Amino acid sequence: MTPRNTLLSLFLVTILFSCSSTKEIQNTTSQLSFEVTLPKSLSVQPLDGRLLLLISNNNEKEPRFQIADGPNSQLAFGIDVEDFGGANNATFGTTAFGYPLKSITDIPKGAYYVQALLNVYETYNRADGHIVKLPADNGEGQQWNRSPENLYSTPKKILIDPSQKSTIKIALDQKIKPIEPPKDTKYIKHIKIKSELLSKFWGRDMYLGAHVLLPEGFDEHPDVKYPLAIMHGHFPYDFGGFRETPPDPNLKPTFSARFGIDGYNIREQQEAHDFYKLWTSANFPRVLAIKIQHANQYYDDSYAVNSENLGPYGDAITYELIPHIEKQFRGIGEGWARFVYGGSTGGWEALAVQVKYPDEYNGCYAACPDPIDFRAYCLVDLYKDKNAYFLESDFKKTPRPMHRDYLGRVNSTLQEANYRELVLGTKSRSGQQWDIWEAVFSPVGEDGYPKRIWNKMTGEINPEVANYWKENYDLTYIMKRDWKTIGPKLKGKINIYCGDMDNYYLNNAVYLAEDFLESTSEPYYDGEVDYGELAEHCWNGDHTQPNAISRLRYHSMFISKWAREIGRRAPEGVDLEGWRY
């Protein structure tokens, strides 16, 4: 290179560096801010919580309903607030953490729909001595964007220009309305009980609920006692999938992007009505079927196990709620006459309670379960990997995927999903998937909140916490460790189903669990593990139907399957016919 060319190159580099530095300085010194106020008309008392600033470039829905992991997500920024209200306003400045853009200075200049929302926290004085601030469930299943008592502002279209000094003021002016509970029908009953175990742990009254589907002929056969079919899963508003009437003729068809089906909502209603007809038919097994409500301060569901952070939900469900239901609705009330089933979260729960309470349940059907082996915590090996977000490498950062379709096309990464959660809530309080796993599986930290399995910003894994997870919640490891004692109690009870293209890579953990189960002896596990070819999340073992249909048939599939199998595992002399009228 000639000296002249060298000088020219240095000059161009200087210009480029100068431009880059100027832009960086403008961003870091930007005085754009958003000031949020809480009028006394909404709350006389100051409030604690997570304050969210929500920004969208469209008005298809309110911004609070447009925050997601996929590529269509709009913008969210979050800050913790204490004693917010009155004269204490809250300000989103350049340090407020955001998703998918990290700072408000990164927002491109333009017109946006802007909204603020306060996810209100309550203070809990737990029995373990910790005082924590967490969002209460208010009957919606722990959903921050529609939880009653949460406050929000009416969306407004605002010009945003991060290069200009300005303060955009937003006043919270709305409170989310209470949710009307479902009403009892001939077949579906709703119950709610105070849990003494959970109330003692949380230092205030805590409740468990359930939706109970009564068998055909329940009133006409007052002397019959019934087995109990327990479906685990996310918070159910009612006993979904059961509909006494045909599909609504005035229902406007909606398109399911996931399944590529137009009018999928009509098909859902038809499947629910078909189940009603099957349930009331002459030959369907007569059982009590229930869905449990156990939303809590961290999630829409407790994972049905005892936890240092959530409390003794496993014991509360098994020894308080279920016996109460059986007593009120004439259940047989013995472990041999109960079984569990579910998909995703419910799949993990079905296997977990069967493993942890082997005498209390007589069969589990776990479809697409959340990670049942932490060597495959989705795409992370918690025991060998050092970082959750990136593949180990000397020089490059390859992000780990979080979600794919059946062709392997990725639409979000593990880091992105965790950053979204970090915006929605610090200290595992987002109410989302990765945080609830952390809340359930982790020990309590010194501050009273769950210990992080990994640094939420960097992805660096904590091996001490990983080892705690292993000993207490890695279901494959626990079965292997304790097979001599629990194996005889689990023989014939374990059934696992998963699509080999599960959207969240959950099939990887199932492969590892199957390797162990197939290696068992004295006794051999004598159950079933099956995979759906190119099947995505929620596949449940039905090779005859597409996933879009089979996922709507959990009740009919697994209740019928258990009724066919129970004769092989029931104690001698029990009544296997009285409830088959």
Keywords for this entry:
581 residues, alpha+beta, Immunoglobulin-like, 3 domains, eight-stranded antiparallel beta sheet, eight-stranded mixed beta sheet, 12 helices, 25 strands, disordered N terminus
Q: What does this molecule look like?
A:
This protein is an alpha+beta fold. It has three domains: 146 residues, Sandwich (Immunoglobulin-like), CATH 2.60.40; 223 residues, Rossmann fold (3-Layer(aba) Sandwich); 94 residues, no CATH class. It has twelve helices and 25 strands. Strands 2, 3, 5, 6, 7, 8, 9 and 11 form an eight-stranded antiparallel β-sheet that branches. Helix 5 crosses helix 9. It is globular and about 80 Å long. It starts with a helix and ends in a 16-residue tail after the last helix.
Proportion of beta-strand residues: 15-25%
CATH class identity of the largest domain: Alpha Beta
- Number of helical runs? 12
Helix-strand category: alpha+beta
Please give the largest β-sheet. 8 strands, antiparallel
Short overview:
The protein is an alpha+beta fold and 581 residues long.
Topology record:
Elements: H1 3-28, E1 33-37, E2 47-56, E3 75-84, E4 90-92, E5 97-99, E6 110-125, E7 131-134, E8 151-152, E9 156-160, E10 167-171, E11 174-175, E12 188-194, H2 196-202, E13 207-213, E14 228-231, E15 255-256, E16 261-262, H3 264-279, E17 288-293, E18 306-307, E19 311-312, H4 313-328, E20 338-343, H5 345-356, E21 364-367, E22 401-404, E23 410-413, H6 414-424, H7 433-441, H8 463-473, H9 475-490, E24 494-499, H10 507-519, E25 528-532, H11 547-550, H12 554-565
Parallel strand pairs: 1-10, 14-17, 14-20, 20-21, 21-24, 24-25
Antiparallel strand pairs: 1-4, 2-3, 2-6, 3-5, 6-7, 6-8, 6-9, 8-11, 12-13, 13-17, 15-16, 18-19, 22-23
